[in-house]
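User: Structure please.
Assistant: Input sequence and predicted structure:
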Amino acid sequence: MHAIRNPSLVLGERTRVALYELRTSKRLTEITDAAITLEMSTRLSRNCCVAFVNVGAPSILYELLGTCNRSLPHVEIVRIVLLTLRNVSKHKDLLNDVATPGSGGVILDLVQMFRDKDDVFVVALIIFSRLLRYNKKLKETCSQPENMKRLTHVLKKVAPSGSDLRIPGSRHGTSK
């Protein structure tokens, strides 16, 4: 009822405004608020997920993720943005749009950088797994020796001591 009286409350309009804020704002509070709006809209509406990919939002979010560090405000932004990408990546028909040319590198950077922060690490791995499963080009890129070495390094850090876990296609396990 409120949305009928105030069009700015309509989910699609809030999504559009949030994307604009992400592209233009330099203030962390505005960026965080915009990310929260995107996470909510993509969680609640498949139509917002479609609109999200149609305007190229995944690229905007990956660019934003690439600028974040490990400070608490940035970690919160990373967490919210990853939840947004996870929401959109639940829709198999949108996965190729979520897998932008630079997405694999950004997600791999996050997996490596936040391996000690479960709330970020696990969501990044979920997205990474979905993207790799459904995007052959991204899978080939991430299978390059330098990326396999990075993944093996992360696995060594997070695997239980003494385990012999291996990354499929990698010659290296976690054993030293």
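Residues 35 and 81 are 6 Å apart (CA to CA).
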